[in-house]
Amino acid sequence: ATASSVLEPVVAEKLIDDALRINAMAFTRHHIEIIREYSKTPPLICDRQKLLQILINLIRNAKHALHDGLEIPKRLNVRVWLAGEDHVRIQVEDNGCGISPENMPQIFRHGFTTKKDGHGFGLHNSALTAQQMGGSLTACSDGVGRGATFTLELPLDVTVATT
After folding, report:
1. Rounded to whole angstroms, how far apart are CA atoms 70 and 79?
2. ∠ CA(30), CA(90), CA(158), 5° rounding?
3. What is the spatial distance between Cα 50 and Cα 30, in angstroms, rounded to a whole number?
4. 11 Cβ partners below 8 Å, 6+ apart?
5. How much is the pLDDT for 163?
6. Is the pLDDT of residue 144 over 70?
7. How far apart are CA 53 and CA 11, in angstroms?
8. Is the dihedral of CA 88, 133, 128, 26 positive or negative?
9. Digit-coded pLDDT (tens) for 25-55
10. How far apart are CA 10 and CA 153, in angstroms?
11. What is the pTM of this model?
12. Are β-strands 7-10 and 74-83 bridged in parallel, bridged antiparallel, or unpaired?
């Protein structure tokens, strides 16, 4: 059996806004400032639901990294821009708890989590889905207390990238 996808034109900026709206109440409750840096990009030809699931996961993880104990202004920065002629990059960056250097190599490993109530499926599944869509998901952090940035890169047309 194979998984099927419904491919359609998707405006990345609008889908990011949808993912942000899903978490809007939590952002307000936790006093998290949302910064949008959107460059105009052509629509992606991809599976809207798969991309939305990746975005929701990255945004929720960032929200959790900006926990209530932080005394700094909490910021979540979401960027989108055209990378070359045929790829779009979407970045989700927070100034939260960060990722320790020893955890970075295993951040996308199935079952790995640093959350007390986590399962270790979200980032693993997001990275696999990005690969299935002909793209990639990467992470970087300067360490504990220094925030984290997740970068999703996808081809404008997933059908060209995966055939």
Report:
1. 23
2. 135
3. 27
4. 41, 43
5. 56
6. yes
7. 15
8. positive
9. 999 998 999 999 999 999 999 999 999 999 9
10. 14
11. 0.91
12. unpaired
- Which pair of tokens denotes residue 63? 């929200």
Q: Give the chain's end-to-end CA distance (angstroms, integer).
A: 18
Alpha helices in the chain, H assignment, sequence order = 12-22, 24-29, 48-65, 122-132, 158-161
Tokens 């708890």 identify what position? 97
Percent of the chain with pLDDT over 70: 91
In angstroms, what CA-CA distances link 71 with 5, 26, 56, 81?
43, 17, 25, 31
Of the candidates 87, 6, 10, 100, the one whose C-alpha atom is nearest the C-alpha of residue 55 is 10
Q: Which two tokens stand for residue 163?
A: 């055939």
Q: Check if the beta carbon of residue 15 is closer than 8 Å to that of residue 36.
A: no
The 3-state DSSP class for residue 8 equals strand
Sheet holding 148-155, edge to edge: 32-38, 74-83, 87-94, 148-155, 136-140
C-beta of residue 154 within 8 angstroms of C-beta of residue 51: yes
Per residue in 82-136, pLDDT tens?
999 999 999 999 999 999 999 999 999 887 877 677 677 899 999 999 999 999 9
Counting other chains too, the contacts that 117-125 makes at CB distance below 8 Å and 24 or more residues apart are 122/57, 122/60, 122/61, 123/57, 123/61, 125/53, 125/57
Q: How far apart are CA 10 and CA 24, in angstroms?
A: 21
